[in-house]
Every structure is written in C-alpha cells, then in structure tokens.
C-alpha cells in the first residue's frame, strides 16, 4: 500500500472532521478565484466600454471626469459645449465622423442620451463591435426612442410603447416632459456596457423638450437636381429633422481618418482658440484615460486580492489546526505503524500526503463551487451592476494561484509531519494518565 492510499484511508476514518476542513478550504479557494475573476473581468468590461473612438471632447474639466460622464454616465458635466464649436471641429480636415452627446435627462433613474443616427453607425464597444438591434431600428422621427437592452428587460418595454422622459438625472424628478411622449422604435442587443441602461433620443428632441430655440440648419443645396438627387435631398432633410441646431451639447466623440493625427488634433483642440471659437475645451484619448483611471483604482484591486489571500490563509490554518488536533488522538495509531516497521520519515510523509490530499480536493471542490455560483448569479450580477462574467476556463494566473495554494498546503503539512517524526515508539504505546 503506497503512502497516498494509506493517507486516503486515514482521512476516510475521520469523515466529519475532514468534510469540515474540505469545506473551509473549498470556500476560501472559491473566494480567491472569484475575487480574481471579478477583478480581471471588471477591468476588461471597463476597458471595452468604448472602442474605435479617437477623441472625446467636452468642456474644460478633468480628463477622468469627462470620460466618466460622457461614456459611463457617472457624474455631471460642469459646462456644456457650444454647437458652433462642435460644427467647427467636425469640419476639421482630419475628422472622419463626429457624434454629439446631450445628457441631463432621465427616465425612472436611467440616463437619457440625445444624439444622432451616426451614434448607431460609428459607436463601437469591446473588440470594435458595432451596436446591433435586437428589435426595431434606429430613430427615424423626433418622437422615436431607442432603448438599451437592460432597460427594456427591467421595465418590460416593447416596440411602440410610449415613454415620458423626466427633467434632470437621478431617480427623483419634479418635472416630467409629458407634452413630449416618445415611441419605442428600437431595442439594442446587450453590450455589457452602460449603453444597456441608456435611452437614446434624437438630439433635436432634447432641444424641443427644453424649449430651446431650434433652427433647421441652412445648407446650400443645388435645386437643379435630377430624380436621384431629389431622393438624396429628401434623405438629407430627414437627417436635418433629427438634428436641428441646438445651442449646446454635453460632449462629442470624434473618429479620425488616421490615428497619426490624434495627438495633433488633441493639442489643437486644447490650445487653438480659433478652432474652438475661444471656448475652453478639453480633448482626451479614451484608451489612455481609461488606463490612467484603472491605475488610480489599482489600490482597491490589490486590497481585494490581499483580502482573498487572507481568506485562503485562514482556510489553511483551519486545516493545520485539524491535523494537529487529530495528531494527539492518533499517537497510538502512529506508534502501531512504527512497530510494524514504518520509519519516522514515512510517518512524516503520511501526514504531508494527508495535507496535500485535503488541499487538492478542497481546490477541486472550490473550482466547482466557483463555476456553480458564477452560473447561478451571472444574470443577476449583470442586471444589478452591468458586469458581465463569462464562463471561461481557468486562466494562467488562476492556475498559478491554485498552485500557490497547493504549495502552501504542502508546507502546512510539514508542521504536523515534523511533530510526528519526533514522536518515539514508546510515546504512542504507553498509556498516559
């Protein structure tokens, strides 16, 4: 009988104590891997909220604040951007597309975003994924509204339902825009980003709701069009009806013809008064600001990892306590093994094998618990926090963490093994009173 088989049979003789020890180790391993998985996937989800946008432009404020309110709908803008500055920068030779964003209203606590149809064409998330519709289409009339997936699910909205937007952000509002009800024209597919909790309106509707003077843009048109050009003209008028000419917007997104010009245009917006019409604006690169923001949060990340590490240590200490306690009760058993020819180092190996078996089995149960809990709570977690946890295989980092737990279990097993090694044959065979 080899040492592991003997250790297995020895553990089976102490089922109740072993089961409690296994449960302690399994829960601590589950917590360690769970915290690590939430940390890494939250980081990925955070970074994947916006993709393919070269610059975000808003009123002069902190770069993190601009990113938070324009992309994550967190916080508020201190000032707005004039429509004139937006149009001026949009016409810059390096700009390929521009998307205006107008924030400040809400519906039952969810943010309302005024924008154009370019938003659904150019905005990307994750690995440069485009927005797609689960039902319906983008807004085609000023009274249309497009819902994020989480809102439609939580509030039970369907296509053609009527929605009234409230003035101001937050759950409580003292003014509802009842005179401007909107009809649900489309529902987006889930993205795992703040878009899922956002309502999208034509930007002209935001202006009308607040009673701002909205003038239709005056474009130079050649009225000597043929039939095809007449069709283009109608389409263009359709766009004008959805945009208008608002006085101010909250921020806007820019996509450039080439990434080479990103730094140059960013510097121009931040310093060139002619380009911004003497308005103090700030342009940020989303990826760079996201990285800076996550570095600010790295302390929280490390604290979470340290806490979960302490949970594992407490689990291993529980195992050590169990082994040491049982060691006193097993003196006679160990003495009998010695009398049958077992050498002291073999007794020590038996204790180490038991420790390794307990730790390895606890790790396997902990991994199983992790997947079970993740499977059971993924939908609720996404609904509550927007965090999308995907069921993936163990990453290399997670495998290294488990290897560290196994090594710690082996080291913990050396302590009772050393004590057992020191016991003499007569120590176990003599009866103590």
Would you write up a description of this structure?
With 433 residues, the chain is an alpha+beta fold. The chain has 15 helices and 15 strands. Strands 1, 3, 4, 7, 8, 9, 10, 11, 12, 14 and 15 form an eleven-stranded mixed sheet that branches. Strand 5 and strand 6 form a beta hairpin. Helix 2 runs antiparallel to helix 14. The protein is elongated. About 6% of the residues have low confidence.
Key words describing this protein structure:
about 425 residues; elongated; 15 helices; single chain; two-stranded antiparallel ribbon; 11-stranded mixed sheet; alpha+beta; about 15% strand
N-to-C order of helices and strands? HHEHEHEEHEEEEHEEEEHHEEHEHHHHHH
Overall spatial form = elongated
How confident overall, as mean pLDDT? Answer: 81
The number of E-state strands comes to 15
Unreliable segments (pLDDT under 50, ≥5 consecutive)?
213-239
Major pleated sheet: 11 strands, mixed
Which class of secondary structure composition applies to the elements?
alpha+beta
Strand fraction equals: 15-25%
Rg, Cα atoms, Å: 32 Å
Give the proportion of residues in helices: 40-55%
